[in-house]
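Good morning C.,

I know you're traveling, so I'll keep this short. The sequence:
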Amino acid sequence: MKPIKELGTEITAARAVLRDARKVVVLTGAGISTDSGIPDFRGPEGLWTKNPEAEKTATLTSYVSDPELRQRNWQRLSEGSMWEGKAPNPGHRSLVELERLKKLHLLITQNVDGLHRAAGTSEERLVEIHGTTSKVRCLDCGDTAPMERALERVRAGEADPPCRLCGGILKSATISFGQNLVMADLHRSEQAATECDVMLAVGSTLTVYPIANVVPIAHQAGAQVVIVNAEPTPFDGLAAAVVPASISEALPLIVAP
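The tokens, ready to paste straight into the viewer:
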């Protein structure tokens, strides 16, 4: 990652692409939220690096088979979310500006922190491809409910609150390892990639599949690709512009009319 003052050429190239865009699809990853104080998962200060059990909790087979693991997870959640008190940063807000300019076709996020929603991105333009921590879902009947309702039950003494409809196992409405994506969300994302004229990938390593495929799908359909990420990605060679900078600094400059 370079200081923003050294990236004038890259910023100018990215701005030129966005200036002429009519339909932009955005894919965001963990990098857009790090300036909000939310660590990534696998980096030196990452959630899973510092707490390996958290990664185990995110594995469906472990979560389902280990009641004690679930109980510890519910207790941890009841004591406060890892992003409690975290707020959207200028990177999130710049994508709301892109929608205000009527250029945002779809925003696909790999994040489950809810910061795009909190920033003001509208529901009809947002796909949370890996789900959200704001809700719980029953693994048996599929019923969903607000996360806070489940946490109130934990604080009231239920160590592993079951689904109130069928008694099944509850977990956060996020996509765990070993769990399928919501196919309607994936199809919507891939369809939007074929329709856009710019694919803007922000803060994503572009190594998590199948959602990373939206970048080459868009490129093959004729869209220009812009990548804003601190580290190189596998698709940098496809891009019309690559900006290796702080997202909260660079993205507002790129999106500004």
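Safe travels,
E.
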